[in-house]
Amino acid sequence: MLPDSFAAELALVHASVPDALPGAAFCALADGLLALLFPQRAERPLSTADAVAADLYHFRAELVELLALVPALPASATALADEFTAQLPALRAALLRDASAILASDPAAQGLGEIVSSYPGFYATALYRIAHALHQRGLPRLPRLLSEYAHQRTGIDIHPGAQIGSSFCIDHGTGLVIGETAIIGADVQIYQGVTLGALSVTKGLQGTKRHPTIEDHVVIYAGATILGGSTVVGAHSIIGGNVWLTESVPSHSRVYHRAHIQISRSVDPAAELVFSI
Fold first, then answer.
1. What is the pLDDT of residues 149-182, one digit of tens each?
2. What is the C-alpha to C-alpha distance for residues 27 and 32, in angstroms, rounded to an integer?
3. Are 209 and 228 contacting, i.e. CB atoms less than 8 angstroms apart?
4. What angle do CA 226, 228, 232 make, to 5 degrees?
5. InterPro entries, per this entry (predicted)?
6. How far, in Å, CA of 164 to CA of 125, rounded?
7. In this structure, how many other beta carbons lie within 10 angstroms of the beta carbon of residue 106?
8. Which long-range contacts (CB under 8 A, 24 or more apart) does 69-78 make?
9. Taking the CA atoms of the chain, what radius of gyration do you get in angstroms?
10. What is the DSSP letter of 21?
């Protein structure tokens, strides 16, 4: 049996915590928003403009209701919801550019419908752009909860404070990490296992630029690690797989890791090896 004092200790901890955030409901609302913006993600697409307008109205109303539960808002729940709802046309346009970038770079992609409905890179980018919009407005905790929800579902970890330009392409994406102060330009393509991280993780660096800057039209291949707030990857550069980079490179650079691979076998005196593929 646990001692009564332990229960009393936990009771004090519970009493000292602010009201719980509506994290699960907010994540569900974000999924519903994506289904509204992209009917390929919806179980039942809407058939009329009136139906779409009604869903937009209900989305705004639910957003106001959930934001009202968040303590220490920088503005009223109604004002924040109105600002975010007014941004929906721009959000959809940005996500269409992201999906088009994936389609243009991935030979396996069969069309925009497949990308918006099933590609984890698009989904993680979509939730990032929603979370980033809320982060910019100073909402506490909710943007991070939303980015972690995307992380759990896709294996892609993008801090909502990162700045990511247009036509962003994540190919595969599992294990991708993009830190809080990373800056990514337009038309950037990143593969799985890439880390845009900090050289040091000491708490004293909070509030400083700790993560790299990636300029426009850069490709970063799988497993590359790029660290440091002063590290800049110049435009039109290619960073090869498994590269470890902690210093800046100029535009149009090609950075790669040269592995030494040796293949040998003992000779079979009885017969030659025959391969059937």
1. 999 999 999 999 999 999 999 999 999 999 999 9
2. 9
3. no
4. 70
5. LbH_SAT, Ser_AcTrfase_N_sf, Trimer_LpxA-like_sf
6. 9
7. 17
8. 69/19, 69/21, 69/22, 70/21, 70/22, 70/139, 70/140, 70/141, 70/142, 71/18, 71/19, 71/140, 72/140, 73/139, 73/140, 74/137, 74/138, 74/139, 75/137
9. 23
10. P
